[in-house]
Design a protein that fits this description.
This protein is α+β, with helices and mostly antiparallel strands. It has seven helices and nine strands; from the N terminus they run αββααββαββαβααββ.
């Protein structure tokens, strides 16, 4: 009796009888319910993954668009201090920096590099020496050099060493811009200034020779040349 009951438990065939038009019938095996559930679960999982992927791409694209909208190109800002007089430059919040031989707004000044430049000279305690004449008879102070911006015909004189160092520090300012974000003044931001510095490197003279003459700019975006390589072109300023 027990063996007969075990045989009944071991085999149960689920069928569905289908009546045909001709009066006959046939039995169809019912599909396994667990297999159907697995397929539904797989389809649902794929759908969730697709939705998640679409949402991720949408968020990523939105983030990129937001970053582009908020990004401000440093070179879109001006380094001009008005180009008229020191009073106007001060009103605009500009300061004089010897590295640029110009008055510049704050966003155009790499202060750390400018301070290093001012300590890299061949004078006492690493200072640079400036004169109002090519014969080194009349030294001028940093403040006197700054106010030359109000004198269209006034220039200062300094050494070839200063000029070479000015070029290399300006190039360093360009390179550091990736980290500092400062705006590079337009007159120094191009092939013209590089070509100018190359010509300075080719001058065959001693580094201590007075071979550099320059005025002070109030509009550093003006591409006009301010540095002169021939001393004879400049007129000595008067500070009387």
């Amino acid at each position: 009796m027990q063996e007969e009951e075990n045989e009944k438990v071991q085999y149960t065939h689920l069928v569905q009888r289908l009546d045909l038009d001709d009066g006959s019938s046939m039995e169809l095996g019912l599909p396994s319910q667990p297999a159907k559930s697995k397929r539904n679960l797989l389809q649902r999982g794929l759908s969730i993954c697709m939705i998640a992927l679409v949402l991720f791409l949408a968020i990523l694209g939105s983030t990129n668009l937001t970053q582009r909208a908020l990004y401000v190109d440093p070179q879109s800002k001006s380094c001009s201090c008005g180009g008229t007089n020191i009073t106007e430059a001060l009103r605009r919040g500009c300061r004089f920096t010897p590295l640029a031989i110009a008055w510049l707004p704050e966003h155009c000044i790499d202060q750390e590099l400018s301070d290093e430049f001012d300590r890299s000279g061949d004078g006492p305690n690493g200072t640079w020496q400036y004169w109002s004449d090519p014969h080194r008879r009349y030294p001028i102070t940093w403040d006197q050099m700054a106010i030359l911006a109000d004198n269209e015909t006034g220039y200062f004189f300094t050494t070839q060493n200063w000029h070479v160092t000015h070029c290399t520090f300006t190039w360093r300012k360009h390179y550091r811009q990736k980290e500092t974000g400062v705006t590079i003044e337009r007159r120094s931001n191009g092939l013209d200034h590089i070509a100018h510095c190359e010509s300075i490197f080719r001058i065959r003279s001693g580094l201590q020779d007075i071979m550099t003459v320059a005025g002070i700019a109030l509009d550093a975006d003006d591409p006009g040349e301010t540095l002169l390589s021939q001393v004879g072109k400049a007129k000595a300023p008067s500070f009387d």
